[in-house]
What we know:
Helices cover about 25% and strands about 20% of the residues. It is an alpha/beta fold. The two termini are about 25 Å apart.
Amino acid sequence: MSVEAPLRENLAAGLLRLAGWAPNDVLLDPMCGSGTIPLEAALMARRIAPGQSRSFAFERLLVHDAKRWGHLREASRLKQLAEPPAAIYASDQDPACGQSRTADVSGSGVAVDIRLRQSDVLALEAPAEQGVLIINPPTESGSAGRRSSMPSILKLGDWLKQRFSGWRAYIFTADLRVPKLIGLAPSKRIPLFNGPLECRLYEFKSCRDRCAKRFRAQN
């Protein structure tokens, strides 16, 4: 069965930081699901501070300086950009995921910044010569452990080599067999947790330089 462990906003923002993504980099999330990663990227690229529009419990404290806090909020708003410096792309094969993501993003005011399409991951072409690609493939759990639930994961290595040779690719997954399955050797493995799930963020610095031999992961 599918694992219900959607990405929280802070984890998505952390993945972008760990991947070394910067607002000037083109970004693609080809399995965007509810769209947490591209949403956080758009907010970061526009310099929209976390919690910019929400209220906080400390505002009810007697010692709270409302005037000072208002100045800080306004200073933060003045730093915001009207649009991100580089394109942010997102896609998913499930049309319901795309609709859910659009609804979520619309409330933040950055829906226009994310270029969304419905597509199978293997049908996608690189939208630019260089960029950062972050993939969070769905996984399932069972007696055999946590495994990638999409047959296309087996073809992901060839897809990266053939169509994203100039990109840095990152795969975030609870399935620790993924490097071996796709036949690419990661340049880095970062242990992380998504809720109770032990995961890895695998880095593939340049898909052009990776060989197609099966990789035996050492975890």
